[in-house]
Amino acid sequence: MTDPDTPQPSPLQDTLALQRQAYLAHPVPTLAERQRDLRTLQRFIREHQDALCEAISLDYGHRSRHETLLAEVFPAVDGIDHILKHLRGWMRPQRRHVDWRNFLGARNRVILQPLGVVGVIVPWNFPLNLSLVPLSYIFAAGNRAMVKMSENSRHLAAYLIQHMPAYFPPEKLHFFDETGGVGVEFSKLKFDHLLFTGSGQTGKAVMAAAAQNLCPVTLELGGKAPAIVCDDFPLQLAAERILFVKLLNAGQICTTVDHAWLPAAKVETFVSLARGLVAQRYPRLDSPDYTSIIDQRAFERLLSALDDARSRGAQVLPLLDGPAFDRATRKIAPHIVLNAPADSLLLQREIFGPILPLRSYTRLDEVISSINAGPRPLAVYPFSYDAAKVQHIIDHVMSGGVSVNDALFHVGQHDLPFGGVGESGMGHYHGYEGFETFSKMRPVFYQTRFSTLKFLWPPYGKFADKVLAFLIR
């Protein structure tokens, strides 16, 4: 009879044990094996891209197919090409300097070896990108992976769970759905590394759970990423670029422009430009190119934030003619908000929706002081052709990343690390740093047949004094 007080194995624990056993039996896959895994992952994406787009759209209620191809399928496929191009060099042992005075003829190397089993907790906003892009670096580093999908990605999770086993065995890769409590149990597993992407509040809980196992974590969180439009930058171009990023995925992006700072004299013109741009890009609220809000809770949260701003005297300006929202489709029209008080919900919390507060300034240092008074953002977006002004912002506002004269695009550069700082996250992946994150940088010292330390073996005497005096002279 089973003892009810004895913890029972779970599918999560069983899979971890299976992958750990497979890792111990073959801890360092060859370059060819890693290349094969990466090409298999890429082949899966290409062979299933239409079904993957459809599954994600079903999870949203409606999501533009083009947005999924642009923001999820393309980065994953193209990123694997980048890794394949560089992987041989990344895997090569690094030569390091040996102090000739101490170890004549000895050698130092740093070898990058697989950690073992990596856990990935995936959010709902870009569930394909934020599962398969990390997996490409996890596999490049030679690891195995367990992936926990979001409760808001049920259709996609079901599809991955059904079809991925034809490409990877469970001892290499296993996907899990969120069926209630899975995320909590998942974060408590004794992984060799854990990657979490999501909210700061949940990130704290994940980090606390991982700490019980001393499991290292990479946290990709969020934050109120500001755009800072300077006087010299063309306002039309700034509006075109900011509105594209802000309304991509209906603003449900951790690195989107949360709010924009504008010279006080240019706010009115920016609003006029924004109305024209939105009318061109999304003529109607039911445009097939415009994505729904993910669920009813998020939909109501955004409407409450607008009501809160309105009740505090802010100007709430829908940018489309007709209804400001549609409950049936969970679509909210793009909005600009002017004069929102500092304590309003829109300025206190990450917006994560198609609402753009505009904040005016007369001196750039006002903007810098305001940003620095809050948590460090995941990104900052200065718009200026004045190189000194841009560098001043970069020097004085710390953030996870920076795109100059545009927004978001630093994230899509395969050779740049991606990650937050402070409350917007910790650790990096993408590029070489992604390979390094999921590897152990293992120092190896190769001693020669003769060691100069022999002169310092006890018992110590005057000769040891002379040797030490020579070494530290």
From TrEMBL:
One of its GO terms (biological process) is aldehyde metabolic process. It comes from Rhodoferax fermentans. The active site is at E220, C254. SUPFAM superfamilies: ALDH-like (SSF53720). The keyword Oxidoreductase applies. One of its GO terms (cellular component) is cytoplasm. Keywords: NAD, Oxidoreductase. InterPro entries: Ald_DH/histidinol_DH, Ald_DH_C, Ald_DH_CS_GLU, Ald_DH_N, Aldehyde_DH_dom, Aldehyde_DH_NAD(P). Pfam families: Aldedh. The keyword Oxidoreductase applies. This is Aldehyde dehydrogenase. Residues 30-442 form the Aldehyde dehydrogenase domain. One of its GO terms (molecular function) is aldehyde dehydrogenase (NAD+) activity. Belongs to the aldehyde dehydrogenase family. Coiled coil: none annotated.
